[in-house]
Amino acid sequence: MILPEVFNSSSLANDEQLSPQKIIEDLNKLKREAYYIPKIDEIISFLKGYAKSGDVIVLMSNGSFGGIYIKLIEALK
Question: Is 5 a residue whose pLDDT tops 90?
Answer without folding.
Answer: no
